[in-house]
Amino acid sequence: MTTRTVLVAHPGAELYGSDRMVLESMRALTTDTVRPVLVVPRRGPLLEEAANEGHTVLICPTPVISKSALGPHGLLDLLRTTLRSLLPGWRLLRSVDPAVVVVNTVTPPLWLLLARLRGVPTISHVHEGEASASRLVQRLLYLPLTLASSIVVNSEFSLGVLSSAAPWLARRSEVVLNAVEGPPQVVPPRERVEGAIRLLFVGRLSARKGPHVAVEAVGLLRDRGVPVTLGLLGSASEGYEWYEQQLRDAVHDRKLTEQVHFHGFQPRIWDLVRDADVVLVPSTVDEPFGNTAVEARLAARPLVVSDISGLREASAGKGSVRRVPPSDPVALADAVESLRDGWDEERGQALAGAADARDRFSSARYASRLRSAVDRLRKDRR
């Protein structure tokens, strides 16, 4: 039985949403006849996780597109990195000789070009949905996808943004909802909220993810006399440490150091989720999807999310969910109070929603859809 290699190219090496999804893709693609190989541009915690699961991981430089890279200075840096990456990337493709290349996110487009030049079919796995970006920025981000043989998109919202910005790509695109890993065991929420209601934010500490909105909501709840705590589980990206410091200063200035706790980045989140009463996803701008929202549902925790974009898809269905306007700490605080006041009913709805989320975002369903997309390209190449 012949085993073929699928090269999975990813732009980072952290363990946040798209990083965890690339691990899910590696698991999905591992079969008796397919061996996925992961390539990333630098070292990071993702490598250890992938290696622990038995996957082959390679490191190869590649340009990664970001909004900052689309400015004059950023474009020069992007060009330099591209020139430095051409030969290493070409050699890696020749050495691995993949049957298919899967490029995870729109940000490492060089792999699409190199694979096209070598005649290797490609799938672009789109996790982005920048509806608030200018049409020019959108088209620049999506233009390299013209080189892809097919496109997989993680939500209907992301597909809508893609279709609006680059309609010629829509006919080659299909939606495959993320698979989201749940806790090893669902621990029901506590039966009664005695003392402080325990809130949890999980994600990067960045303005777009909205932890500052959560901190402000905690201040409002404290001022209303509602006992409350907030855990911030995550860290700032490199270059954005100033935001985390700004967040810490706000906690200090509002005298919330007893209520707000910084847990930093942790690869295992479930102990903290288990101890939480409510999970907050207070994103301030469009989200193509919302893995954290699904994780909360899988753990049977009531959820407060911003009423935007892909977060609606991630929080749809059964469960205890409150949707609030983005960047509105008053609405966020009101939603938390509402959950606390109706805890018996919300607890039951959260438990019922866990089973619904397990079915909708199951690994088996995701694996079947992704394998089908890869198999179609492998057959077309024969």
Question: Any overview of this molecule?
Answer:
InterPro entries: Glyco_trans_1 (IPR001296), Glyco_trans_4-like_N (IPR028098). It comes from Auraticoccus monumenti. This is Glycosyltransferase involved in cell wall bisynthesis. GO terms for molecular function: glycosyltransferase activity. With 382 residues, this protein is an alpha/beta fold. Helices cover 44% and strands 16% of the residues. The protein has a 7-stranded parallel β-sheet with strand order 3-2-1-4-5-6-7, sandwiched between helices. Strands 10-9-8-11-12-13 form a 6-stranded parallel β-sheet, sandwiched between helices. α3 (72-96) packs across α4. The protein starts with a strand and ends with a helix.
Summarize the structure.
The chain is of the alpha/beta class. It has helices at 17-29, 45-52, 72-96, 110-117, 135-142, 156-165, 211-223, 241-253, 270-275, 291-298, 309-314, 329-341, 343-360, 363-381; strands at 4-9, 34-40, 56-59, 100-104, 122-126, 150-153, 173-175, 197-202, 228-233, 260-264, 278-281, 303-306, 321-324. The longest helix is centred in the N-terminal third of the chain and has 25 residues, at 72-96.
Features:
Rossmann fold, six-stranded parallel beta sheet, 13 strands, alpha/beta, 14 helices, 2 domains
- In the CATH hierarchy, what is the superfamily of the largest domain? Glycogen Phosphorylase B
Strand order of the largest sheet: 3-2-1-4-5-6-7
Question: What is the count of distinct domains?
Answer: 2
- The helix-and-strand class reads alpha/beta
Number of helices: 14
Biggest beta-sheet profile: 7 strands, parallel
Could you give the count of β-strands? Answer: 13
Helix content: 40-55%
Distance between the termini: 16 Å
CATH fold type of the largest domain? Rossmann fold
Question: Low-confidence segments, ≥5 residues, pLDDT <50?
Answer: none
Percent of residues in beta strands = 15-25%
